[in-house]
Structures are given as structure tokens and as C-alpha cells.
Amino acid sequence: MVAKVVTVTSGKGGVGKTTTTANLAVALATLGQKVVCIDADIGLRNLDVVLGLENRIVYDLVDVVEGRCRLRQAMIRDKRLPELYLIPAAQTRDKNAVSPSDMSRLCEELRPEVDWIFIDSPAGIERGFRNALAPADMVLVVTNPEVSAVRDADRIIGIVEAEEKGPVRLILNRVNPNLTRRGDMLNAEDVLELLAVELIGIVPEDENVIISTNKGQPVALDGKSRAGLAFQNIARRLMGENVPFLNLDSGDGFLKRLTRLFRSGGTMG
Amino acid sequence: MSNWLEQLLGKKTKSADQAKERLKLVLIHDRTDLSPALLDNLKNELLAVISKHVEIDPGAVVINLTQDGREQRLVADIPLKSARRSRSG
């Protein structure tokens, strides 16, 4: 096995980086892949609660970097899936405790062991972001169809390209089909035209994300919700499958949507 | 007037279109670190240099940043005075 290192980042906070990381890791693990996700947001750890693994933390990323434990000991196994692991961020320590070269070294050690390494980047363009970017083979930029999120995504894409860390793939998260349809929300074409990068997923706004996060059970564990399905689709695209995008922002009438619903076998595709 | 009626009559630009137009300009300036003021300075100096060699109409000069994918381009349209005279004469 030689893992691919995927960094999930956004610039702006609150657009859904951690939710995306957790769900893609879960979705790939349900496809039989061996996945490790690393929370690189030192001081503000959250990937553990989104995954529902917060009660099982003994060691963290800083413990590994500073040699207080072996890498294996800091990897918390998610018992719901055969091969999903979390390396949590440290909550209380100095956020400069980890350097970009520490992250690269850690990923090199993990690479032969797993299929995927997901790194949840902190918001911003500071040290934590640089740490998350250093070992990346692929960068997933998460954004929302809003001016501030798109602007920050553009800054991030610029930095990633300057550091030659690509390829960059865009995830448009929290798309509200009603607002898009009536012209009060940027649609996917608008955002792609502005950012000029390749799209890998469109995730609809879905209250199931909030409900499932409350319970610590990522939506991608089952494909019943629209957001869960969207994350599963992204995971399949990461595996090289050609999966059509959810068509959320079309102005199609009821009948057309209905026929599409039937054609796709009862799901929103 | 209700919202949908305004849209039907085309009285209001949709907010998504406004967002897109505003973002277009913001991103161009973010990517190049060229503020409108800096672009103005650039334009003035460029005109001064060109005016040394050929006669131009400073009022007709258009200098803009355009976007081609993620690449930014500085495009200058500088009509020459002599060329215009010969066409109209």
C-alpha cells in the first residue's frame, strides 16, 4: 500500500472542512479502503467529536511528534468500520509544537500502511495550514456559495498552486437548491467560472448533517441523506470512478425532476 | 411589489449575479495585489512613456486586468492619434 495524502482546507472557517474530512474518510472506509485521518487543528480539535470518537483519546498528534508515544498508539480505531483511524489534534498544547517537516515525516511513516491519509486543516493561512499542506498529494478546497467563502478559497488555491502542491479539487458545500433556483445563491457554474479549478463534489445543505453530528455519526455512514450520498459520490470519484454530479440547481419543473428521480432509482443521484 | 413580480418584470438584478460580478473584480485585484489606485498610477506612467514617442489621446486609453482561467492579464488599448486622423480624413 502507498497512501495518497489528501489535505482538506478552505481558508475561511465554518464552511465544513471537518465535516467533509470525516465523511470522506468514512465513505472511503465503507468502500473497503484503509483510511487514517489526522486533525491538524492544534488547540481547536474537532474531528474527534464529528467522528464520535472523543471518548477514546489517549495520545494525540503532539505526543507522536514529541516522541511520547508510538504512531500506532495515537491511532484511534473507529469500531463501526473495518479500517478507519483517527490521529487527534492536541487540545491544550502550543500550536507551534508541530512543524511542516514533522507532518511530512509522519505521513511518510504512515504511507506504506494505509490507502488514504486525510488531513483536516485549520482555517486561515498560518502555521497550521502550512503543516496540513506540506505532505499533500492532493488538496480538497471546501467552499460555500457565498462571497466571503469563495474569496478565501481563491486565496488558498493561489497559495497551493504557488507551492506546487496540487492538484486542487473543489467541493462546493451547503448548496441550497431553492435559493440557487431563484437566483439568490451562486450556482456551481458561477463558482467554477470564478475560481477556475476542477470540481469534485457538490454537497447540498442538509439538516441531517446537523442531526448526525449531534450523535457523532457522520452522514456518510449510510447513503440515506442527500448530503451523505453526495459525500459517498466524492469518495467514489476519489477512487477514480466517474460519478455524475447531483443536479441541484436546475430550474427544471416538477415533472422533469420526477422523471430524473425515477431514472436514478429513487435517489437524487 | 412582490419579489417574483419584480423578477418577472426584470426590475431587480438577482443577488447571485451581483455576488458574481463583485467577486470577479475582487478576485482579480486579490490575485495580482494591484489595487485600483496602483493600476491608475501604472496607467499614468505608461501613458507618459508612450506619449514621448507617439501622439495619443489620454482620454481614450483603456487599461484593464482581465482573467484567463487562473491567469491574470494586463490589457491596454491605446488608440494612436495619427491613425484616427487619417481614418476620418
Automatic annotation (TrEMBL), chain B:
Coiled-coil residue spans: none
UniProt superkingdom: Bacteria
BP-aspect Gene Ontology terms: cell division; regulation of division septum assembly
InterPro entries membership: MinE, MinE_sf
Keywords: Cell cycle, Cell division
Gene3D superfamilies: Cell division topological specificity factor MinE
Pfam families according to UniProt: MinE
Family: Belongs to the MinE family.
HAMAP family named among the record's database cross-references: MinE (MF_00262)
Cited function: Prevents the cell division inhibition by proteins MinC and MinD at internal division sites while permitting inhibition at polar sites. This ensures cell division at the proper site by restricting the formation of a division septum at the midpoint of the long axis of the cell.
Protein name (database record): Cell division topological specificity factor
Organism expressing this protein natively: Thermanaerothrix daxensis
This protein's encoding gene: minE
